[in-house]
Amino acid sequence: MIERQASLLLRQLANGFPIVALTGPRQSGKTTLARQVFAGKPYFTFEDLETRQRALMDPRQFFAHLPDGAVLDEVQRCPELLSYLQGVVDERSRMGDFVVTGSQQFGLVAQVTQSLAGRVGLLQLLPLSFPELAHAGLAPGSLEKALWIGGYPALFDRQRRLDDPRLWFSGYTATYVERDVRQVLGVTNLSLFQRFVLMCAARTGQLLNLSALAADCGISHTTARNWLTVLEASYLVYLLPPHHRNFGKRLVKMPKLYFLDSGLLCHLLRIDSPLTLATHALRGAIFESWVVGQTLMHRWNRGLPADIYFWRDNHGTEVDLLFEQGGSLHAVEIKSGATFSPDWLRGLERWRQYAGADAGTPVLVHGGRDSYFADGVHVLAWNRMGV
Questions:
Q1: Is 331 part of any domain?
Q2: What gap in Å lies between CA 101 and CA 22, rounded to an integer?
Q3: In angstroms, rounded to a whole number, what is the distance separating the alpha carbons of residues 209 and 212?
Q4: Contacts of 42 (CB under 8 A, 6+ apart)
Q5: Residues 237, 257: contact at Cβ < 8 Å?
Q6: Pair (90, 207) in one structural domain
Q7: 66: which of 2, 232, 294, 365 lies 20 to 30 Å off by Cα?
Q8: Structural domain contains residue 55
Q9: What is the dihedral angle through the alpha carbons of 177, 179, 185, 191, rounded to the nearest 10 degrees?
Q10: How far apart (Å, rounded) are the C-alpha atoms in residues 175 and 160?
Q11: 111 & 14 share domain
Q12: Which 3 state secondary structure label does DSSP give 40?
């Protein structure tokens, strides 16, 4: 069993809220984590038709037989139960009574926050982070392999590990990305939606020009916006906003588009092996996406808001990531190369000039294996992120 960093946060939330909700992409390990941390609680999944019908037929009777609470999986399938659940936890006034899991694209968070306001602690769980894999002795040995496989737990299950992760990603894309997302959107033209997802993958790490994306896919701007919103709610993509302070007369207002799992991204880009990835034109963008994903995992596993940004000045100089910590702003530059070049520091140097006293120690994450300090910048090896 791979130990999840979010386990501590899950227990902390259970000490302060009567209900804890886990959301995240399909197959990210929500159910496994909930059942592992709350092994003493009975488990019910509302994917099961009989369980769903029994609960909806007589909700009061269903909850009356759960004196110690329960883990309720895929609760968004039964939104009607949430109002009954509110009455149960209010009557008991007991922390950590129920744990609910579900997928955000079906409106879990909206349903939970509306029905259970003030009673629920929320945890967003992404696939396995590199530190979690490293701690379990399962981390890939090379950067290319780490990017190509990604972090979905099923790919690291010793009982059913596949020699070729592309087989799993093909099933995942067909079963969850296409079926679930299309169900929410009501998409009738599958090939058009598939093209949209592939065009998003090809734009990872780039400024999001929604009008151009819509035109390239042959759909309206409104349709593209709606489709992208659901991909974002499904935790498949993340829109990184520009920093809101006016350092150097920021020009861009558009966010940057990133896929949160590099393995899924490589599959969508039809990259068939780590060797192919090593010379692929989008290798740098894929690595950048991986670092953004790892950063979000690190923050969400600790209950922190995302609060990460990028920065670009009026000369086109850019810093890939900015976040605030300890009252200072910390800049992160991302370079996939393994051999350090002084040119990599130019963006960070310009940003420090603008930020002045607000600037914390900058970080340069690179594709090499050495970590050290250079000109006041912490140069960090890719395999030391969060480890």
A1: yes
A2: 5
A3: 5
A4: 66, 68, 70, 71
A5: yes
A6: no
A7: 2
A8: yes
A9: 80
A10: 18
A11: yes
A12: coil
Q: With the CA atoms of 142, 330, 305 and 107 taken in that order, what torsion angle do they form, in degrees rounded to the nearest 10?
A: -60
CA neighbor of 320 nearest in space, from 358, 286, 347: 347
CA torsion sign for 356, 360, 361, 365 is negative
List, for residues 190-207, the tens digit of each pLDDT value: 788 889 999 999 999 999
135 with 284, same domain? yes
Residue whose pair of structure tokens reads 């306001």 in the numeric block:
117
Query: What CATH number does the domain containing 166 carry?
Result: 1.10.10
Q: What is the DSSP pairing of strand 308-312 with strand 318-325?
A: antiparallel
| Final residue in a domain of this structure, among 102, 124, 146 | 124
State the Cα–Cα distance between residues 16 and 9, nearest whole angstrom: 11
Give me the residue label for tokens 């488990």: 43
Parallel/antiparallel/unpaired status of strands 98-102 and 256-259:
unpaired
Instruction: Report how far apart the first and last C-alpha atoms of the chain are (Å, whole number).
Output: 19
Q: Which domain does 363 fall in, by range?
A: 310-384
Find the radius of gyration of the CA atoms of the chain: 22
Least confident of 130-144, 268-282, 342-356, 359-373: 342-356
Sign of the torsion formed by the C-alpha atoms of 353, 355, 360 and 363: negative
pLDDT tens-digit readout, 71-127: 999 988 888 888 889 899 999 999 999 999 987 655 666 777 777 778 899 999 999
- Listed in order, strand segments (DSSP E) in the chain are 19-23, 43-45, 70-73, 98-102, 120-124, 206-207, 237-240, 256-259, 308-312, 318-325, 328-335, 363-366, 372-374, 377-381
Based on the domain organization, do 253 and 318 belong to the same domain? no
> Cα–Cα distances in Å, from 260 out to 160, 232, 278, 309?
24, 10, 20, 15
pTM: 0.93
DSSP string, 258-291: EES-HHHHHHHTT--SHHHHHT-TTHHHHHHHHH
3-state secondary structure of 359: strand
Residues 6+ apart with CB under 8 A from 179: none
3-state DSSP assignment of residue 253: coil
Is 98 in a helix, a strand, or coil? Answer: strand
Is residue 103 located within the same domain as residue 245?
no
The pLDDT tens digits of the residues spanning 330-384 come to: 999 999 999 999 999 998 998 888 888 888 999 999 999 999 999 889 999 999 9
